[in-house]
């Protein structure tokens, strides 16, 4: 019996796949649990339309991410925290600090999970930080950390 998978099923396939399965497996397990439907022409067409819509949505997301990347290109962030004598910061520069400063400078909303920073910055210096805007779109920005001027 041919069925169209509505959800991913381990060892069988992903949503949208058409599979030939035993009639009992389809009638007693896949269809009642909402994991699959009988593969009629209407169902196949609906799955194709859904896949096309997903492809369009993915393309729009990537295009939006590329626009954001263009806005972030060449961006330099400057932080001037308090620093000890050895050049170590009293605190640290975190992903949240970076996203907040990006928001202030560009108006772009960046999620902290998009900032590819392994550990927070704890020393004075210049750092290249990658921002993952989409699985295919990365943008590198410069984060400069300088000692706070004593006044």
Query: What separation lies between the terminal Cα atoms?
Result: 80 Å
State the helicity in percent bands: 25-40%
Query: What is the topology, as strand order, of the major beta sheet?
Result: 4-9-8-6
Low-pLDDT ranges: none
H-E order: EEHEHEEHEEEE
Radius of gyration: 25 Å
Structural class: alpha+beta
Number of strands: 9
Shape: elongated
Number of helices: 3
Q: What is the mean pLDDT? A: 92
Report the sheet-strand fraction: 25-35%
The largest pleated sheet is described as: 4 strands, mixed
Describe the structure.
The protein is of the alpha+beta class. Helices cover 34% and strands 29% of the residues. It has 3 helices and 9 strands, in the order ββαβαββαββββ. Strands 4-9-8-6 form a 4-stranded mixed beta sheet. Strand 8 (125-134) and strand 9 form a beta hairpin. The chain is elongated. It starts with a strand and ends in a 6-residue tail after the last strand. The relative contact order is 0.14. The mean pLDDT is 92.
Helices and strands in order, then pairings?
Elements: E1 2-5, E2 18-20, H1 23-30, E3 36-38, H2 41-72, E4 76-79, E5 88-93, H3 95-106, E6 115-116, E7 121-123, E8 125-134, E9 137-145
Parallel strand pairs: 4-9
Antiparallel strand pairs: 1-2, 1-3, 5-7, 6-8, 8-9
Give a summary of the structure in a few sentences.
This protein is of the alpha+beta class. Helices cover 34% and strands 29% of the residues. It has helices at residues 23-30, 41-72, 95-106; strands at residues 2-5, 18-20, 36-38, 76-79, 88-93, 115-116, 121-123, 125-134, 137-145.
